[in-house]
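User: Run a structure prediction on this.
Assistant: Running it now.
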Amino acid sequence: MCHQPSAGHIVILTSIVTRAFNTSMEVACSCVREDPISGEQTLICEGFFTFVAIGDDGKRVKLPPLVPVSSEEQLSYDLAQERSKRAVAVPSSPSPP
């Protein structure tokens, strides 16, 4: 079922860096709608995004390590590594002519 915000709903976007690799980082994002009258929240969508750190010179920049503290952070950190391995293993689609 597709949930989308209606007029008057509050849209809440949250994100967290789950892992910093050498020059890239994975960020988990979610989008929730909230009914301001009832307070009911419904997930609209969620996903993982990879961003590459680019310096002022346009080149990739090495990132400092991300150190997970809680067990939840450690799980997110470990799963990010698994997603990264799977993404590297999948060949890219050819570009359209």
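The chain has a mean pLDDT of 90.
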